[in-house]
Amino acid sequence: MPTSTKRKQGAVQAVGAAAAEPSSKKSKTTTTTGGSAPSFAGSWDKLKPILTPWILETIHTTFGFTNLTPVQASLIPLAISKNKDFLVEAVTGSGKTLSYVVPILERLVAKEAEMARERGSAGQGGTGVKGLRRNEVFALVVVPTRELAVQVHAVFELFFQGLRTYVADQKAMNNTPATKGTTDDDGTTETEQQQAAATPETIIVEEIYPSPLLLVSGQTTTSKSTTALPAPSPIIIGTPGRVASYLSTSLSTSSSSSTSAFARARKHLSLTPFSLLILDEADSLLSSPDHLRNMLTIWQTVPRQRRNWLFSATMMDVLSERTNGLLGQTGLERAGLKNLTRVVVKVETKVKGREQDQNGNDAAATTAAAVPAEVKQRRTPVSLQNTYILCHAAEKTLQLVRAMGTETTGENGYSKFIVYFSTCAAVDYFYRILRRLPELSHFHFSSLHGHLPPPIRTSTLSTFTTHSSTPLRPSVLLCTDVAARGLDLPDVDVVVQYDAPMDPKVFSHRAGRAARMGRQGKGIVLLTKGSEEGYIEFLALRKIPLRKQAYIGPTEDQAENDGGESSTAGEKASYAVDPAADALQLAIQNIVLEDRDLADKAAKAFVSAVRAYSKHEASYIFRLRDLDVFGMGKSFGLLRLPRMPEIRDWKERVAKARERQEKGKAGEDDERLVSSSWQDRDMNWDEFAYVSKTREAQRLAELKEAESKKDEIAAEREQAAKVRREMAEKRVAWSVKKDRKDRKDVRREKKDRKKDWEAKEAKRSEAEAAAGPTSDKPTAQGSAAVTSDGDGDDDMDEYRDVKKSKKEHSGGNMIQSDMFDDLS
Ligand SMILES: Nc1ncnc2c1ncn2[C@@H]1O[C@H](COP(=O)(O)OP(=O)(O)OP(=O)(O)O)[C@@H](O)[C@H]1O
To answer: Which superkingdom does the taxonomy of this entry point to (predicted)?
Structure first.
């Protein structure tokens, strides 16, 4: 949430205004209707209950806001006046932060006055000496990332600065003779009116709230001694891990038998007046097992008598989502949260007929599967133009580079970009590569991911935020999902998702970094042809409509037309890869060749990206089996393919597809596989050096040692291979032996059963013969024939079982079944 209040879309429009009271006690739904300007719903001045003067003043002067957004108008009155738990969903960039910050502050002021009354001091409008004590915590705001915590903390800070200014103004006004100021209709001056309104509680201010406490990585929150911990504050903001550890450490000594330690801990932190637990991006906090562990600690630590407010743009998803490790419970059930009042702000677009894409193509006709002709409700901002580009895996980097070029030129003239990758290693690598490409040399690059040290994360974000980008000098942030949720980075124009997110919920959060509060913005997701096309329909069903953007050709006016079509079922797909992708691969390789360290980074990035692909939640769309690893290798500009089981499998499959093609028996899948080819770069790896002198010296030393021990190493390798072979043989021999024995046992058992049965039958026949002839009973022979058929079937089953067990025991398949475990 920026401090800047200047918006490109200045128009303010009250649409779908929310009433102050809910239509139903359980659920409140507000609908905003699309236009490019932001939707507003009434003015802050007219809000009921009336806001505390310094809070209102800060909203007006510091933030520069006159009107409330629909989510603010819906929630703030309820949250101030009703003692309820809330579940709030509104699209990205719709002002959810203020919708909880303002009620927290209002309730804090009220609590302060209440405590002051109880403790025998006059309430002081949020500034009491004997209201809340310094060690008393009133509210806790938990968010999933460090960056978001810093941002929310900054918003609270602005309010407290506003309070200080307000207090100073009031004091000054108190000391000024009431001769200045504008004269009103009743003849009193403005200053006189303000003085008359100012009660002693609001004027006599001796202390003001301490700054909210921020608990994030890079700060001391754990210590054996509570004295080394940061001092508490009425409002604490932090990430789950840090908050949990702070609370546990601060309160841990209270259970100690030592009275002094207990007294010290009490002194350090008290949760007596604790009232509010706010989870921002709550769906992420409730669905990630890591976050949940820490959330459990927090829930167990804070008093039960509290209100819970949960916020997210994808909040409703957690209602049904059952997470692994939660014993089949939803996050809400695990948190024991029931009877939540839902506040949902829905966005509607007035779509007449079918949506059209950029080229005037009918959206439903151009997508792989039928997108509903009229997508009326959506879970993304109306001002966000959400698109996808279909390409081959080998063309992804090419499309990224071209998209960045075309979006800055021509009509669009965009200048601020975010590009999301699936892993930290990929961000690291592409950050080093993309900035070196001549096509992107005018871009200012930043990179952000969770493996960077906290100070670097802070400075990167601040550089990107403050960079004054223009289409001639655009800026781009390459990042992972660490920057996907909640971050209010001003003026972001385009969000490119190089990789679709592993958690589909994150898609709208990523795209929502653009088009905030009515600004125009664009989202582009790069999807590869084939099963990934199913993602379009998948998102459409989740009310996130995507429009097709044409494959970007060499220049804007030469855009290739293949983008206008999609490989819908039955249509023969084109497997030809853009020759420019090969040229780009060569260009990237040439950059990599300058430093061996880049080759290491490339391999790491590639391996991590392949592994990440296998962890997609929508695993039936993002199938590792369908991932064109050769194409991906090209897009990464690899010099050679790293060794990994996924690649061995791909190589074998390509080879088999070739065989089938030669025999004229190739299917569509085979065509696709055959079109994917790989050639390691022809080069001398022994001479490929690191730029870092120490690293290179180390490599040369290792090389020398390896050279001197060449024979030894070769012998060791041979020995290891021999052991592996023997083990494999043993495994096979063991399994074959076991199979034989099992089959023999089964046969013997059947034989025994048959003998028993025959003996019984013989006895029965004898008994029947003794009793007299009966015509319609089956003969022993007839029955035996039936049994024999059955034996035949059993044999088949047995054969199938043995075959299956052999297959499972063969090395290659074992790797494969492990590999695809998580894809089933
Ligand atoms: N009433 C208002 N009038 C004008 N601008 C506002 C108002 N409320 C918030 N904003 C601005 O809108 C932007 C988005 O707000 P905020 O970050 O709270 O959105 P959000 O709904 O929390 O988004 P996300 O889901 O991405 O976290 C911020 O820059 C904020 O300053």
So the answer is: Eukaryota
